[in-house]
Design brief:
The chain has about 100 residues and is mainly α. The protein has four helices and no strands. It has helices at about 1-30, 40-55, 60-65, 80-95.
C-alpha cells in the first residue's frame, strides 16, 4: 500500500512540475517579467557598465562603490566583485535586442 501511495505521489509531483513550467512559459510569452523586481538605480548600473568598459576590474569597481558609500540593491554597503559582475551581465542582457 505504501509503495502504491509513493508512486502516485511521484506522479503528482511530476504533473505539478509540468503545469508550473507550462504556466511560466505562457507568462513569458505574454511578456510578463518574472522574478524579483530590479531595485538598483539605473545610475548605479550605468556606472558599473561604464567603469567596466573603461577597463576596470570587478574588484576595483566594487571597491569604488564601497568608497563612495553606494548602497547595494538590498540597502547594504558591502559590494562583492561577483555582485558587480552579475549587475553588469544583467544590464547587457537587458539592453541587448
Amino acid at each position: 500500500m505504501a509503495q502504491i501511495l509513493s508512486v502516485f505521489a511521484e506522479l503528482e509531483r511530476r504533473l505539478i512540475g509540468e503545469r508550473t513550467k507550462a504556466a511560466l512559459a505562457v507568462k513569458r510569452a505574454q511578456g510578463v517579467r518574472l522574478g524579483r523586481p530590479r531595485t538598483l538605480p539605473d545610475k548605479v548600473v550605468n556606472r558599473i557598465v561604464r567603469e567596466r568598459a573603461n577597463g576596470r576590474t570587478w574588484t576595483a569597481i566594487a571597491d569604488g562603490l564601497e568608497a563612495d558609500r553606494v548602497a547595494t540593491a538590498q540597502g547594504g554597503l558591502r559590494w562583492y566583485p561577483a555582485t558587480v559582475r552579475s549587475v553588469a551581465m544583467s544590464a547587457s542582457r537587458r539592453f541587448t535586442p
